[in-house]
Amino acid sequence: MVWVTRAKRGLCAALTTTGLVCAAMQSAGAQPSVPVAVRDVHRVLTPTLPGTYGDDTAVVILGYGLTPEGAMRKELVRRLQTGFVQSVFAPSSPIVVTGGNPRAGTSEADAMAEWLVSAGIDPARILRETRAESTVANARNTAALMDEHNLRTAVLITSDDHVRRARAAFDAAGVEVVGELTPGATPWPVLPLRIEQFGPVLPTDQFARHPL
């Protein structure tokens, strides 16, 4: 398994030169099988690092309940900021925003898409799933949308305390998840780069709708 260890170390070294920090590696004494080791390269790194992906991988941002007035809560904005960073690292990947539960005539997905467009994302890059009312529905509906657009794999963007359940739902829906990114599990707080720096600069009178 020497080549696996060297490959992982080489990838970490390359990432470190960009100012990012690798997640903790498996102990040197661990000797997983080759298929398991290859599969786990993404799973070791992606909880803390945005990845580079192609146009057949979707960046999937999961919704979060809006206020009764249709405003986004801070946790949803943090998911969007994280998804925005991932979208910069994978500029050819479509972005799926998934979430129904409309409030004041606005679905979670529509509010999310509006924020992303305000952040400079091309509207044509955004795929909206506006009917899901649960994590299971997020996964099933996103799977259908991905199939419609010939997307093979997904990177999940959600909250730290939700990612395990989301991963299980997407696995059950037949979606191949190649990465996960959450607002809290990143190295950014210890770097000059902070997640709160990303996204649109909004007028003061819009802060209630897009709380940062």
From TrEMBL:
Keywords: Signal
Keyword RNA-binding attached: no
Alphabetized Pfam families for the sequence: DUF218
CDD domains associated with the record: YdcF-like
Residue ranges of domain DUF218 in the record: 58-190
UniProt signal peptide: 1-23
PANTHER family reported for this sequence: ENVELOPE BIOGENESIS FACTOR ELYC, INNER MEMBRANE PROTEIN, PROBABLE PERMEASE
Protein name: YdcF family protein
